Amino acid sequence: MNAIKSILFFILAPGTVAGFIPLLFFRNGNQINTGIFAYLALPLWIIGLGTLIWCFYDFVQKGKGTPAPLDPPKELVVSGLYQYVRNPMYVGVFIILLGHFVWFGYWNLLVYAGIFLIPVHLFVTLYEEPYLKKTFGASYEEYLKKTPRWIPRL
After folding, report:
1. Phi-psi region for residue 137, left (φ > 0), alpha (ψ -120 to 50) or beta?
2. pTM of the model as a whole
3. Position 130 pLDDT exceeds 90
4. Roughly how many angstroms between the first and final C-alpha of the chain, as a whole number?
5. Given this model, what pLDDT does residue 69 score?
6. Is the pLDDT of residue 27 over 90?
7. Which distant-in-sequence residues (6+ apart) come within 8 Å of 58 by Cβ?
8. Contacts for 5-14: CB closer than 8 Å, 24+ residues apart
9. CB-side neighbour CA atoms (13 Å) of 118
């Protein structure tokens, strides 16, 4: 059942934010010719989509829940991509959005990608992290110390 709920959430949340909204509303305005660099969109899309699929899988299998805030994982997921960065799903969506800009060349898509980060950062810092601290306690506190929020350590 968690897998079905996760698939529905995948379509609803990242599908809307990274697909429907930018491609319907932001493919207009000033455009630049990205030339041969447009083909960089393909690896960006693959990396972003692969990141999302991997994380959704981990939430269902390891976390025993879904990525949806209304039905969160029962266990803290700190492996897979979560060992490198605390929010790989949001990073994956951002990478997909960058791919849209590189492919289509509309500045609106780049602005949308940047603006996407503001509510995401606020949601993570004001709701998600306090909730996870309360839910998982010391294990989450230790995870916070070891793992960066957005940009992985090399």
Report:
1. left
2. 0.94
3. yes
4. 36
5. 81
6. no
7. 77, 79, 80, 81, 82
8. 5/66, 5/68, 5/71, 6/56, 6/59, 6/60, 6/66, 6/67, 6/68, 9/66, 9/67, 9/68, 10/52, 10/56, 10/67, 13/67, 13/68, 14/52, 14/89, 14/92, 14/93, 14/96
9. 4
The full set of domains in the chain, from first to last, is: 2-146 (1.20.120.1630)
Structure tokens of 120? 């995401």
Phi, psi of 106 (to 5 degrees): -80, 125
Question: In the prediction, which pLDDT does 46 show?
Answer: 98
Q: Which two tokens stand for residue 8?
A: 């529905």
- Rounded CA gap, 136 and 95, in Å? 29
The rounded distance, in Å, linking the Cα atoms of 18 and 101 is 12
Distance, in Å, from the CA atom of 146 to the CA atom of 43, rounded to the nearest integer, reads 28
Amino acid found at 65:
G
